[in-house]
Predict the structure.
Amino acid sequence: MKGTQLLKDHRIRIITGNYGTGKTEFSVNYALKLAEQGKKVALVDLDVVNLYFRSREQQEMMEKAGIRVISSSIKGKGADLPAISAEVAAPLQDESYHVILDVGGDSMGARVLVRYHQYFKENAFDMLFVVNANRPETATKEGVLQHVESIARVSKTYPTALVNNTHLLRETSMEDVKRGQKLCREVSGETGLPIRYVSLLESLANELPEDYEGEAFPIRLTMRESWM
């Protein structure tokens, strides 16, 4: 199994994609892996559209791992309003930070990126588009391409790579992963975007074929309780 080498990515990573693809789970795991590598990490929750399964819900756990978590400017878990903190700009400007921007799904959620466009210099950031072939709207090449283009149009930022994150939560099988890989290859062939990661449960990681494009990215489900 190929190892996950996050350090080859640029300092600023934007995580985007369709609703329900697992962007937030991927973002949290990404932040934790960077922290484990001894990096100074900030995770910014920019999802001001969908208030369910927000990365801020794991703020305490991430802060214990040394990760700086930035979300709504309204503090308190019981007061979740679509307000972006002015604190977001600090780690974007501070080059000692590795920054992960967890962006809301679809073009509506991606609009917030325009505010920070000045920090997304060419060859200085990665925008990872997360694909879950089990989501109805992105189960086909045409569906994924539509979302890629709409998000790029409103955010003024085009994705730099794909993430195969095809899953059914704890019921995920290698067949799901393979179906997602096939779809990502089709999208890659159309757009030229490389498949950067193949995200899958830790229990499946050793089953990933060696010839798959993309680094294996084993994840733990942090955003849902074990009964969900």
Remarks:
- The first helix runs from residue 23 to 36.
- The chain has a mean pLDDT of 86.
- DSSP finds six helices and eight strands in the chain.
- Residues 29 and 100 are 11 Å apart (CA to CA).
